[in-house]
Design a protein that fits this description.
131 residues; mainly alpha; 0% strand; flat
Length: 131
């Protein structure tokens, strides 16, 4: 997959260079903007080579890992996906309900900063004497 993508990136770089050459030859672009276009085309060309090298290294690493796994079987415990899914769903639902509750409880025409700064919770509570 990565090798094929690297070929596409190299082809894209070559097409970009050809396109920029045609644009320069027809006079649609001035010489002032050509360095930026040339650099972008070179980035595409070099990214294709870099991706090809990375793909080669990754396949070598995968082969080494497969050899190691075949020689040494490591059994890992599978995560409890139903529990984690439920946890994520409930957390997201509670977050949405909490945000909606804050929006609904805020008085109309008052910004959130004014609503939070003008609360009376700090004035009505008195704990001078604790039994």
């Amino acid at each position: 997959m990565n090798a094929k993508l690297s070929q596409h990136m190299t082809l894209l770089g070559l097409c970009a260079m050809a396109f920029y050459g045609v644009m320069l030859a027809t006079g649609k672009l001035s010489v002032d903007v050509m360095p930026q276009f040339a650099v972008s085309a070179l980035i595409f060309l070099t990214s294709g080579r870099l991706m090809r090298k990375a793909a080669r290294i990754m396949t070598e690493e995968k082969e080494e890992e497969q050899e190691q796994v075949q020689t040494k079987k490591v059994e890992r415990e599978e995560p409890d996906w139903p529990f984690l899914t439920n946890l994520l769903n409930w957390t997201a639902a509670l977050l949405v309900v909490g945000i909606m509750a804050l929006i609904i409880m805020k008085p109309v025409g008052v910004s959130f900063t004014d609503a939070f700064s003008d609360t009376l919770a700090h004035e009505s509570f008195y704990a001078g004497h604790v039994p």
